[in-house]
């Protein structure tokens, strides 16, 4: 993390781990859209994925600007594969499945970023990082809200189960990325 903040501050160590999860998540998010683009021929889905992939690339650049390469997750290949599958599988099913998946992912990401932002709210030394996280969170909310609007069918039992699995996988991924 490129900062002049004291390394003895407990927040610094916590934040470094959290930024590792954010870096892993943004890497996975790009891969989600890669998976969607690889498998979907739907013009609406492809436009959505292309647009939001660019936003995720910008988020990744922000995180990379503050998290040194030596502190990034060693599991990035796994996050890329998991992300690709998370996008590709629903893209093989339907556009509604894609949008339900994005809603599930972005709902998790909203909660994850919100927890980080809340913890940093009374730490002015980290306000620049909090601002970056808030910008990323706001973009993710827009992705979620757009996905909700684009869903033409209510998720069936399979898609609801898939979205639960995606949320559970996100929790596990964050726990792993904090450590590895």
Structural notes for this entry:
The protein has 180 residues and is mainly α. The chain is built from six helices and no strands. The longest helix has 30 residues, at 10-39. The mean pLDDT is 93.
Instruction: Report the β-strand fraction as a percent range.
Output: under 5%
Order of helices and strands: HHHHHH
Count of individual domains: 1
Helix content: over 70%
Please, what is the oligomeric state?
Answer: single chain
Low-pLDDT residue intervals, each spanning 5 or more residues: none
What's the alpha carbon Rg, rounded to whole Å? 16 Å
Helix count equals: 6
Strand segment tally = 0
What structural class results from the helix and strand content?
A: mainly alpha
Largest sheet: none
C-alpha geometry: globular
CATH architecture: Up-down Bundle
Mean model confidence by pLDDT: 93
CATH topology: Ferritin
State the name of the first-level CATH class.
Answer: Mainly Alpha
What is the CA–CA distance across the termini?
16 Å
Please describe the structure with a list of short key phrases separated by commas or semicolons:
180 residues; mainly alpha
Could you give the topology of this structure?
Layout: H1 10-39, H2 43-66, H3 76-93, H4 95-120, H5 127-150, H6 157-179
TL;DR?
By secondary structure, this protein is mostly helical. The protein is 81% helix and 0% strand.
